[in-house]
Amino acid sequence: MNMKCPGQDTQFWTQEAIYEAACPKCGGSVEFFKDDTTRKCHSCKHRFVNPKLDFGCAAYCAYAEQCLGDLPPELVAEKQDLLKDRVAVAVKRHLKSDFKSIGLAARRAQHAESIARAQQADVPVLLMAAYLWDLKDSDSKDQTSTIRTLMVDLKAPGPLINKVCNLVSGQQEQQGNQADIAAEAAGLALLEDQLKTGSLESGKLKDRIKEICRTQSGTDYARKLFEVESE
Q1: Can you spell out the DSSP letters for 175-224?
Q2: Are residues 211 and 121 in the same domain?
Q3: Distance between CA atoms of 156 and 154, rounded to whole angstroms?
Q4: How far apart are CA 108 and CA 134, in angstroms?
Q5: What pLDDT was estimated at residue 189?
Q6: Which partner for 84 in 58, 76, 127, 217 could form a disulfide, CB atoms 3.0-4.6 Å apart?
Q7: CA distance 92 to 90
């Protein structure tokens, strides 16, 4: 028996499942069903993506791969962005009640995203690397093995898994400034902890930022984060 996603099964739909949207080209009214990915405007024949299409459920749904596989070409690029959300959820499940590590992973991701956007780097890939940065099983010394297992379970493509593992293992020559950004994000998250616990003297903050940051975007972000004046 084939199971159907409740979000796509019409027996679960309400009146809000059918709605109208304005064509971005001519402003004409186009009727959409909630599971339509695209529709063509009757007035100007322009085809556009359903503006209410939401694949946020892909972060936790067991049938996400089946849904995402049916995306039109214009939305295929979003699959990697959705995958980083699924990685975040998987990491939290892996860490269970280790809230300190969960918080550290979240801060790494926040720093990585900010620096990556300023550097115009690959944000989703760097977010995955940030979440997975220090992930490993308690009985395993092979960090990348744990990461590969998790990403394979999420049906991530092989080249992407290799890219993330290379970032985490610090293979600089293969990743360029993306490896720098990943390392910066991890270093800044640890630096925050050192300041909170008092294990780092405030007078040494500037020197630590210099040691951690390898890109100008990372340096600028760190100075703003820790309220350190530019030299």
Answers
A1: HTHHHHHHHHHHHHHHHHHHHHHT-S-GGGHHHHHHHH--SHHHHHHHHH
A2: yes
A3: 6
A4: 11
A5: 95
A6: 127
A7: 5
pLDDT grade for 209, boundaries at 50, 70 and 90: very high
CA proximity to 164, closest of 137, 135, 136, 126: 126
Number of domains forming the structure of the chain: 2
Given a cut of 60, whether residue 120 has pLDDT beyond it is yes
**Residue range of the domain that includes 110:** 78-225
Residue-wise pLDDT for 21-53, tens only, equals: 999 889 999 999 887 778 899 999 998 878 776
Residues 102 and 144 placed together within one structural domain of the fold: yes
Mean pLDDT of 211-222: 94
The enclosing H or E element of 92 equals helix 78-95
**Structure tokens belonging to residue 57:** 């459920």
Per DSSP (E only), the strands in 46-120 are: 47-49
Pair of tokens at residue 147: 């990461």
Residue where the block lists tokens 């009757």? 42
Cβ-Cβ contacts under 8 Å for 177 (sequence gap 6 or more): 119, 121, 214, 215
